[in-house]
Amino acid sequence: DAIGISSSSNTITLEDNAMVIDDCDVNDVGSKFTGVGASGTNGVFSDSAFNGLTLNGTTISGYDTGVHKELGVLSLIGDADITGDAYGIYTDDVEVYSLGASVAADTTDGVGLYLLNSDDTWIYPLDVEGNVGVFANNSVFRWDNLGTGVSDATTALKTEDSTGSIENMTF
Fold first, then answer.
1. Contacts for 113-119 with beta carbons within 8 Å, 24 or more apart?
2. What pLDDT score was predicted for residue 101?
3. pLDDT band for position 2 (50/70/90)?
4. Parallel, antiparallel or unpaired: strands 87-92 and 111-116
5. Which residues, 6 or more positions from 4, have their beta carbon under 8 angstroms from its beta carbon?
6. Distance of CA 136 to the CA centre of its chain
7. 70, 76, 79, 106: which is deepest, by most CB within 10 A?
8. Strand ranges (DSSP E) for the chain?
């Protein structure tokens, strides 16, 4: 059985790795993670298949990558707001579920949400900013903005070797 950790309403300012997750499920509600904008940094880092990460109303900013998650499940709910310079969120082999979140990255070359090797991604709705809002690479996705999500990205969706659908978008 996985160990579960609940976190709520924390304010954490660290240059790198404000939260590192290894072999446990984390459910955060309303915390704020802030970095100093240094290159190569992560706000939240997890690379274990045994991790489930839920960000509920969580705000992350000031990092090169807001959330770096490999393997497992990532859930974004409750107006989670994740910002990074290169990536708001970078995932590899992660099931991603979003219900009412925002992701943002640098408008010159950043990606709001990068999906690599995701077998299952459900996004309802998602606000995106960056050079690319969502980049799906070798992934399966469904992005339905339900008429409320907005893309302020230069390119809302970029795909490579992926299948999916995009519905009810506002550009």
1. 113/87, 113/88, 113/89, 114/87, 114/89, 114/90, 115/91, 115/139, 115/141, 115/162, 116/90, 116/91, 116/92, 117/92, 117/93, 118/91, 118/93, 118/94, 119/93, 119/95
2. 96
3. low
4. parallel
5. 24, 25, 26, 27
6. 13
7. 76
8. 3-8, 11-13, 19-21, 24-29, 32-34, 42-46, 52-56, 59-61, 65-70, 73-77, 81-83, 87-92, 95-104, 111-116, 121-129, 132-137, 140-144, 155-160, 163-167
65-85 pLDDT, tens digit each: 999 999 999 999 999 999 999
Question: 31: which 2 tokens?
Answer: 């915390």
Dig out the tokens for 90 from the structure: 């970078």
**149's tokens:** 């999500």
